[in-house]
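User: Structure tokens for both sequences below?

Assistant:
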Amino acid sequence: MKKLYFLLPFVLLACKSNTTVGDKSSKETSKPIEITYKVQETEVSDFLKYLSSDELEGRETGTRGIEKAAVFLEDFLKTNNVKPYFKTYRDTLTNFKLPAFNIVGVIEGTDPVLKKEFVVLSAHYDHIGLEKKKQDDVINNGANDDASGVTAVAQMAKYFTETKSNKRSILVVFFAGEEKGLLGSKSLVQKLKSQDFNLYAQLNIEMIGVPMKRDYLAYITGFDKSNMAEKINQYTGKNTIGFLPKEAEYKLFYRSDNFSFYEAFKKPCQSISTFDFENFEFYHHVSDEFKVMDIPHMTAFIQEFLPAVTKMADTPTEEITMK
């Protein structure tokens, strides 16, 4: 997640209480669609372990570490039959001095009309690289930020290619340059706007590596900007999304790649997270490593979201709307 250094005192001093006083969430639920597909915990673990490994040297945009990550993501998309959206999977950033790439794939919708509309599933695969001061561990592995989100999006992409349950087309995006100022998403939206890209909604996944101690699974940024939270809860039949007061206080809606898309398209474009400023001490820290990630939680998170992303991709009308 971009530029949250000013939040570190709050992270370190945050109250450890389990209370959710002050939180509000949509309580409306409905029977979700049945999903028989099962997300495999071993696949979640293996994917996250490599993407956050020391070999990738913290995945800073423009470095050899993120180049290795790009190859890894390209190979994953190709292996799982996600086609390149452009001529190749690589979308070159137009606003960064060194060679840098978003990785962009597409899963064409199955409906001849609805496939012209797109749901964007996204996460940023860059991080902050190597620590400049001398110390025993200098690699900012970025397991939670945001290899966890990339892992979730990758598993959702695999789900759609195997089930072919998306009537709308799915744009799968792994952004570079998020930590440099949302550069990857800013670059991509300009290209998509020039193509008259028909966006329905964007679900951006940011820092979901550890669970919250709340009565909902995750929170959404910009809770009141659309009815996305309400609809996700209807689609899952659970209290999946809630309102986190600190999200509104720190204006997190504007601090991740969803904002670039919202600013360009004025459509529901929001981020989902389980980092609540109380459950993870290692934001932008060398200890943000694979070993502190909760793989069962991540697997359950992805599984719970499958009915939601499926309904987003196949409802005959645009049910998720701006307020």
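Moving on to the next sequence.
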Amino acid sequence: MNKESTIAAPESQRVKAPALLYEMIRSFVTLADTLNLSQAVKQLDSTRQTVRRHIAHLEEIKGGELFEVKDRRYSLSLLGVTILPEARDLMANASAWLLGNAGQINGLQYLMHGPSEGHIFYQQQHQVDRVFSSSGKILQEVLEGWARGGGQLQHEALREVRRYCNIFRRMNGDLVFTEVGDDSSFLSWFGADIAESTIGRRLGQMPGGEGFGRLVDIAYAEIEMSQAIRLDHIHTVIPKPDLQELVPISYERMMLGARFPDQSPAIISVVRRTYDIEIKGVTAEMIKRMPEEYLMS
């Protein structure tokens, strides 16, 4: 290892986070959403001078202009477009953390929303080796097929277990269904007609608004980029086509990075409805509110 690489940069060369960093990012995201200074000022309950100062300070830190202004009309610069997703994630994380709706347990992601208008959503990430101690074998079989097939969707080993899986790809920023397995939790819950109609459509919006939705999407983005493995336990409520109400559902979900034949990234999601989950804040009584008839072997 290069000895110099272990030496920290001098204090004078480090960028110190300004005290108003949150407000600066908030001004940037709001102006990026509205592309109108007057509207941004109104939404922020601020002043034009303050918003301009926040943007100027952020541009100084990031080393370039975030907006292009022509005839008082704002448009994002290339740098602005590049850093906007990260800025939105920071805002979402900050808001959720402040409300106690996001955090880490043993270094892994934890999310919670609700109850609000009948909606609840709990998600806790677990170590992947828990797949092998699961009370069911579906996740383990998919993991083994994925490993033997090297993540290639068309490999024979993976084709054998694709019937349990949903497969997604990202198009124009949205996750889109490309396949719903015949023995998947999704199909058995919603039925074949809805499952078939889902192909080509984007993954539905999660409760909690856009900010919380961005936190939920972190799991998918992580797998898409790393092409690795992730295990989550989830408790929420979702509609059942044959009922006129939201139904509690508890499940373990494993996601795997994969490749389509053209080597573009895919996301495999395999879900097993079960009482065998562990989530902070979710009691055994809550877990078992899912009717026993919906359990998967």
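User: Anything stand out in the second?

Assistant: The chain has ten helices and ten strands.
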